[in-house]
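Ticket reopened. Same input as before:
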Amino acid sequence: MEPMTTYSVYKWLRKKRRKKKFDLYKQTYHMVVDPVMVFYSGLFVIFCLFIGYDWLQQLITLLDGRGTFIAPYAFFLPLLAIISASVASFTDPGLRFTSSELQLSFLPHSRKWLLTYLFLEKYIVQLLIIMVVPLPFALVLMSWESAVTWVSLLLISYPLSLWMQWKLFSMSSVYKMSVFLFSAAFSVLFFLGFPVLLLYLGLSVIVLVCFIRKEEVDWGRVIDINDARVWNMWLVGYFTEVNIKPPKRFGITKSIWKKKRGRHYSAQHLYGRIWTGYLQKSADVVWKTIPTVCLIILVIPMRVDWMLMFTLPIAIVVYHEVAGGLFSDVEGVFHPLPIEEESCKNSYLKWAYIGLLPVFISFISIQTVLGESLVAIGMQLIAIILLVYVDLARVIDERLMMVQKENFYREEWRRVAGLILLGAGVYHPLFLLGVPLVVFKIGRSTLKELIS
Amino acid sequence: MEVVLEVKNCNVDIQKERILRDISFHVKRNEIMALVGHNGAGKSTLMKTMIGSREKITGTLSIAGNDQDAQYKSYKRNFTYIPEEPLLFNELTVYHHFKLYQKSYSVPEDVFESRVQTYTQGFELKDKLDEYPEALSKGMRQKVQTICALIPDVPVLFIDEPFMGLDVYAGRFLEEELIRKKVQGACIVLTTHQLEKVSELANRYVMLVEGEVASSGDVSEFHELERRST
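Engineering reply: fixed in the latest deploy. New output:
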């Protein structure tokens, strides 16, 4: 029997991958999509296409020949390709060589050929995209000579960028940064009117250096990242709330941060490191919460100014509850380790307080826009900081006691009173005088008052 | 001998299905107890329940008189755990892990330093102290996890498949260390599929079959697992 060629195996593998992904999408579709909704959405899309066609016809006559001024910038594309490759190479190898391709390479199939197929496949797809989108636009916007120049340089720049990204990915950060800085410098010279040929010569030197340098590919890193990228399907992840992420050790900051390998750390420092990692893992929640809370403070009062009395306490409660919720996973974070409570809480609170900075900035901004006096803003800010400082610590304290299966007494009404006074303080700063009274009382009551 | 770990009438459900039924046993000081059973018998679930990472429906668990529900914090301070798959923190180096366990269990500095010295030598990890977990092989990560659990002096040591992933020398070193811990007064609960280890190391055994204690007693009474489908 004839052995299968590398190409046929590669094709077969890709086909199976597409099928599995399609099945996953199908399952998600059956899980979340209502056929009636799809029918009406389909009608809506067809309707939009007709509108779009009409709009495009008007736009074409309007744009015809108006893009001539961007024609000379086509020569900037190779420089842009190298810049984007150097930036992307910090986190992404570009070519989707996954663990399946690696397994194939352990069979009698060449890894080099597999990479070549991946490269060609990506290039052909890009080629088709260029033909469908930028080429027609270029033909409408500029003369056909300029359009051909743009598209030709695009066709050269894309594989160059892809190849550079792949090469740079396994190189040290210093190399990546150097390539970025050089290509950025060339870009500046381009806009200063430096001869393009000389700049391309410089660029060729960079490419040549990368070509000559025989860096071993960091296969482990390539595979971890690619597996996550290939199988993290946005739509499926969105509906199932399961997102596949590459191990976080591959971020830009991670590799720099990890170089600090001191040995003499306090418990709080060690806890701090663990919480930092945990918050990075929970980045989705963090990055949704902080802007949401800022928007609560900013958007509604922008239209109805007195609403700030309500939105400020709501924003604080939302932030505290999310921070408390994230902290509740403490058992999952530290596994069966007994927790050194103070270090654990303090190291988490440090980050929780830092996360509030954008909220404070949002509050100051909206009050400035609404024309509040500086004295009043100052007083309100002090009251907010005071309340947040004590209340957040109390929330975290309570969550830890819940996790540790301890009994405690919750004085919710004092918390509510503090928030009402804070809101009222937005109406008139005099109300803020009540905040310290309530807050300091809360402070005393957080001493674990056991019911039993 | 004083009873250190006591498990009484524990029932555990996973997704409304009863996985452990009315589990009761105890382990005394200076004793190694082996939890044996086929795959899916409930050994790991029981282990997770004992370390508190899985909730039980009914029953009580206590270590040195500290009830898991009523005195959870003290309960947790009284055991260490070596999981089958190492649970290491990506943010910490090998040495940081040891330090974290030292701080968490309040191990005196001099004791800590001497133990780190002994264990890193015994497990051949001396040159890996400043490495992060991802730079270590699976076996090495298992060694780090094992050292972490051996550093504190606690009444109970839970071990899920202790010799999995360890090389011959590390396995032998761990065996010696477990016996030393036992002689010093600790009690050890381990799960293993290596039945010869059960007779070599353990004093008593508890056999689980489909989530129930099928038999228990002195290890000399233990012969072998019967085939599940006969």
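Helices of chain B lie at 43-51, 72-77, 94-104, 109-122, 138-150, 168-183, 195-201. The mean pLDDT of chain B is 88. Please confirm and we'll close it.
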